[in-house]
Amino acid sequence: MSASLPPPILPGATIGVLGSGQLGRMFTIAARALGYRVHTFSPDDDTPTGQVADREVCRSYDDLDAVRQFAGEVDVITFEFENVPSATAAAAAERAPVRPAGALLELTQHRLREKGGLRARGFPTARFLPIRSLADLEGGLRELGAPALLKTAGWGYDGKGQALIAGVDEAAAGWRSLATDEAILEELVDFERELSVIVARGQDGGLVTYGPVENHHVRGILDLTLAPAPVEAGLAARARELAAEVARSLELCGVLCAELFVTARGDLLINELAPRPHNSGHYTIDACVTSQFEQQVRAVCGLPLGSPEQVRPAAMVNLLGDLWAEGTPRWAAALADPRVKLHLYGKREARPGRKMGHLCALAASLDEARDAALAARRALAGS
Ligand code: AMP
Fold first, then answer.
1. Does residue 339 sit within a domain?
2. Residues lining ligand 1, judged by CB closer than 6 Å?
3. From CA 380, how far away is CA 374, in angstroms rounded?
4. Mapping DSSP to helix (H, G, I), strand (E, B) and coil, where does residue 349 land?
5. What is the CATH number of the domain that holds 139?
6. 131, 271, 272: residue to mutate for ligand 1 pocket, most atoms within 8 A of CB
7. Are 125 and 85 in contact (CB under 8 A)?
8. 293 within a domain of the structure (yes/no)
9. Domain-embedded: residue 108
10. Which of 187, 222, 239 is the last residue of a domain?
11. I want to staple 344 with a disulfide (CB 3.0 to 4.6 A). Which of 33, 281, 348, 357 is the partner?
């Protein structure tokens, strides 16, 4: 098998990143540590990624000539968010290898395709139905039962584009609120906890997994990650194996996150896939031998993967723009605890709900790490 692999792309080469947010920033920092150059492409300027990259190209994703030119100047292309249009990925692929492949991006940027694809491959998900009209929704609520969750099929993230529908009499208002012509209706899973597993898979099929970690959301946005998840070893092993099987089945080259629900019966359901590093894996920068971002660099460049071993229990809390409501957060107060690490993404404008940075606390136990991370965030706000 290895005889037919393309040669590795070695340090000194240039990696192109489609997208320019915080994931691209942390990827770029890892890539530059390994001696690569990084170019980033997105419609914005002075971006979290652009601030740390060698070159920031500021053009529309629909400008396919600009995409081709960008791709012609790099050795490999990856992406840091999955809502890059598929025509953009295809244009890039004319000039440079795109890893993971654009087909994976297309699958995961559309909830119906993603859940349908998972089901077709035999993976467990919540029951769901495609919804293209109010009549579909009313019928769907009768079939799946209410309450149920209605989500836009495309372009959703962080709980955006979702409506909880309590019953058939709320269907019309719920359908209007989404303002879409294609949605997915999902049964409401009465989950015991939410886990995620990050998988890195190289070109040669070599694969490592992280976690699972336990995730807590507030208003649909990740708030707190506990690593490792405090679950029994058998469940943890099943979660890792499930995510690894998904990565193999999709022929991943890169990093993928599988978000999982654990039901009251201890079954695992896949909620969502992200074909890239994930917010719930940010703890790997501080707590693991190799971060999820370094693994993405290694995987897309055809290098051997690093050890995913976690060296200390860790807790990660997100810092949203809401923290800026009373003025600049008190950075020194949060860092007064030497076990706490601060990561800021360089975003100019702090808006409510916008991810501006995160804190990661490392401690001797998971409880101590969680308490330290939460206390540091409280200290930031001065409360
Ligand atoms: P998503 O954007 O699909 O990742 O959803 C954001 C969050 O909403 C998830 O992390 C869950 O906490 C919750 N959620 C999503 N889908 C379901 C579901 N089918 N049943 C229960 N909770 C859900």
1. yes
2. 126, 149, 156, 159, 186, 188-189, 194, 217, 220, 259, 271-272
3. 10
4. coil
5. 3.30.1490.20
6. 271
7. no
8. yes
9. no
10. 187
11. 357
Look up residue 99 and give its two tokens.
């890893």
Distance CA 304, CA 61 (A): 31
pLDDT tens profile 227-261: 999 999 999 999 999 999 999 999 999 999 999 99
Residue nearest to atom 6 of ligand 1 (CA): 159
* Contacts for 283 with CB less than 8 Å, ≥ 6 apart: 213, 225, 227, 314, 315, 316, 360
pLDDT tens-digit readout, 124-144: 999 999 999 999 999 999 999
The whole domain housing 373 covers 191-380
Atom of ligand 1 nearest to the CA of 151: 3
Q: Indicate if 169 and 200 belong to the same structural domain.
A: no
H or E stretch at 276: none
Q: What is the mean pLDDT of residues 200-227?
A: 96
- CA-to-CA separations, 355 to 163, 204, 348, in angstroms, rounded: 22, 35, 12
> What CA–CA distance (Å, rounded) separates 333 from 65?
48
E strand or H helix that includes residue 181: none
Task: Please list, in sequence order, all residues whose beta carbon lies within 8 angstroms of the beta carbon of residue 340, skipping any fewer than 6 positions away.
Answer: 334, 359, 360, 361, 372, 373, 376
Q: Which of 129, 149, 215, 263 to mutate to test the pocket of ligand 1 (most atoms within 8 A of CB)?
A: 149
Asked if residue 161 and residue 54 are part of one domain, the reply reads no
Q: Are both 71 and 200 inside the same structural domain?
A: no
Residue 235 shares a structural domain with residue 182? no
- What backbone torsions phi and psi does residue 253 show, to the nearest 5 degrees? -125, 105
